[in-house]
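Quarterly update, task 2.4: nicotinamide-adenine-dinucleotide-bound model.
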Amino acid sequence: MLNQLRVAILGAGKIAELGHLPGYVQAGAAIVAVCDTDASALQRLGDKYQIDRRHTDWRQMLAMGGFDAVSICTPPSLHADMAVASAQHGYHVLVEKPMALTLNACDRMIEAARSANKLLMVSHNQRFAARHVIAKRILDSGRLGRPYVARATFAHGGPENWSPRQTWYFDAGPATQGVMADLGSHKIDLLRWLLGQEVTEVSAFGATFEKATKADDTAVLSLRFSGGTLASIYVSWAQRPRMTDDLAIQCDRGTLLVPTDASEPVRVLEPGQGGTVAESVYAFDAAGEPGWLAAVAAFVDAVTNHKQSPVSGEDGRATMAAVLAAYDAFANRRVVQLMLPSRELGGS
Ligand SMILES: NC(=O)c1ccc[n+]([C@@H]2O[C@H](COP(=O)([O-])OP(=O)(O)OC[C@H]3O[C@@H](n4cnc5c(N)ncnc54)[C@H](O)[C@@H]3O)[C@@H](O)[C@H]2O)c1
């Protein structure tokens, strides 16, 4: 067992500031180095977290070493090269979502971690949000029976409000960097995990209503899962006035409702006596939202105690396969079928 995990942060932007850095502090890890090409971002977070080693060249930081793990908090187009090099240098990797822009890039990351015998975790933090942990417990208990339909929304006013200095969110590049990848990956991963099923078919519509980008700022996805559950996902960077980040799962014995935040409880609606509705409520703590700190804590725990990755590279890849299928479906106006990962086919 490692005494204290030593980590280096790659990318000192918004998710590093709100998720990774406080997450490592809370989990008792030592943050020994930080890297960003933007000197002001580097100074701000370096000062705030009193990190002595500050780099502008990530390859140099990796080569210099002195840490056990790397948190990759840069734009998605950089994730694969950074994760592969990190694993090759012998570091465990926590990489932000979406995992990478192509399945080939995801495969390279998985293979590099496997060859180096290092842990690779994709930071799908929604799994760790308190309200989703409650939802998972309820679904897994079998009380609601078979999940027929899931309806998930993740919509807010856009990344320019979240990280005002960023430009990459709107650089469409290979048409995989829009809201379907940004917010859609969150909800696809969440549903895969909650349902314990893989996505088998996807159709999707996207639109660019108002953002200065060629990418989609709003999208609607329809999914079929391997256990038969249907899902619809609405994602947007153009929603006003407030964010919606919620979920409803209709099952054969009742409905599970997961709210956006802790101002409302998780609710279960079931048929009551004489045609009434029996409602059960599950309050949760706002401190457990949106799961950023718990995701980092799970990474630290897994590395320190030699556990399996809490969200594996294969998970990140399966989610990206569905995201890319949605882009394909949208671009080519068709329903896209996905190959099931071998563990589904093999039943293990
Ligand atoms: N899990 C979540 O809830 C969540 C929320 C927001 C963002 N994210 C993800 O986190 C990642 C970063 O998003 P963000 O919103 O923090 O972006 P951001 O723009 O705020 O931060 C990214 C940082 O990376 C730096 N950077 C860019 N190129 C670099 C390079 N070559 N070397 C070193 N640093 C470099 C930038 O200067 C910037 O400071 C993305 O993958 C995004 O999808 C996840």
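Highlight for this quarter: The domain at 6-125+292-312 is CATH 3.40.50.720 (Rossmann fold).
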